[in-house]
Amino acid sequence: MGVNGITESRAVLEEVTELLLKWEKHSNTLHSLADQIMGLERCEKQKIAVPADTYIAVRSTIQQKIVEELENLSVFLNELEVQRDAMVSHIDNMETKCQTMLEDKQDQSLRPSTEFPLLQTMYSIYNHISVIVSMKKIPLHNARVDDFQSLQELQQMNQTTESIKTELEKVILRDESSSVALK
Predict the structure, then answer these.
(1) In which domain of life is the source organism classified (predicted)?
(2) Alpha carbon distance 88, 96 (integer Å)
(3) Packing angle between helix 115-142 and helix 148-182, nearest 10 degrees?
(4) Rounded to the nearest 5°, which phi and psi values hold at 147?
(5) Hey, is 112 helix, strand or coil?
(6) Average of pLDDT values for 158-163?
(7) b/e sequence 125-157, b meaning 16+ C-beta within 10 Å
(8) More exposed terminus of the chain, fewer Cβ within 10 Å: N or C?
(9) What is the tens place of the pLDDT at every residue in 48-64?
């Protein structure tokens, strides 16, 4: 299970990394669109002449794109949850392997075990993914096209989870360097 555990965990990590990059891209687009609507509102408040039909058409188009981006972010969050759940399955398999090794002292004495550090790394990855999912879920659920405060909260949450994403990357790098050392 050791090699399979590493392979399976890396596959999850690659998917999570890709999802977080997509999240960031679509989130940036969402916030850019929200800024555009706020710019339209400033024009209206400052009595800058914009034909009403143009204003309505532009605002409607931007709001529709915001809805699309919120839907994209929801899909990415669901996919992150799937990957988090996949990690649970891999952890369960690795725990079973480690438990068997502990019960079978002869097997443990025949070869050095990479499974125990791998299990610890897998737990760490799972915890980081879980925190990211938890932190993104509520602000995304509360985000609404017509509520800029909710969109700003989503943006603030994205900034907050950057440090967790950085920590996840450190766990991955640490795991990769220890895997190279074990080979």
Answers:
(1) Eukaryota
(2) 12
(3) 170
(4) -125, 95
(5) coil
(6) 84
(7) bbbbbeebbeebeebbeebebeeeebbebbbeb
(8) C
(9) 888 889 889 998 999 99
Q: How far, in Å, CA of 162 to CA of 157, rounded?
A: 9
Phi, psi of 50 (to 5 degrees): -130, 125
**Contact assessment for residue 38 and residue 148, using Cβ atoms and an 8 Å cutoff:** yes
pLDDT score of 182: 38
Angle at 35 between CA 31 and CA 36, to 5 degrees: 120
Is the pTM higher than 0.85? Answer: no
Structural tokens at position 34 = 């929200």
- 135: tokens are 């932190």
Rounded CA Rg of the chain: 23
Closest CA to 16 of 92, 81, 75: 81
3-state helix, strand, coil in the chain (%, to 5): 90, 0, 10
What is the per-residue DSSP string for 45-85? Answer: HTT----HHHHHHHHHHHHHHHHHHHHHHHHHHHHHHHHHH
Lowest mean pLDDT among 75-79, 87-91, 165-169: 165-169
CB 26 within 8 Å of CB 69? yes
Here the tokens at position 138 are: 């509520």
Per the listing, tokens 């609404």 go with 144
